[in-house]
Amino acid sequence: MPTLPPHVDDLAVGDIVAEESFPLTRDSLVRYAGASGDFNPIHYRDDIAKSVGLPGVLAHGMLTMGFAVQPVADWVGDPGRIRDYQVRFTRPVVVDPEVGAVVTVVAKVGQLDAEAGTARIDLTVKVGAETVLGKAQAVVALA
To answer: Which of 18, 93, 98, 126 is surrounded by the most beta carbons within 10 Å?
Structure first.
């Protein structure tokens, strides 16, 4: 049986609706490159990444963006309920060859529109203590 979406009357601004962590390894990046077709060597070769001034191999921006919205899709019960999704890339996700990286996401109600039956979900997306996506927001249709 499908999960019913959250109801606007059951939410308040500031409510945390989802939290999740996503571990990344170099293997993750290779798999994503194959799935997406983005074989830019900054995503798998340290020498190339450093030659263009980067601190090391970076996760694909769209992979990070996908991780960030996944907890919202899971919470709302249907990714088709996401009406808008925007982020600003503020810092690259460097994936260490030995320890990888962990992207953490906290999704919080930023605004409710009872008339429209929507909520703006504000996302805090970090690796360690550093925010990697700024102004990350999703608008979702509620019950």
So the answer is: 93
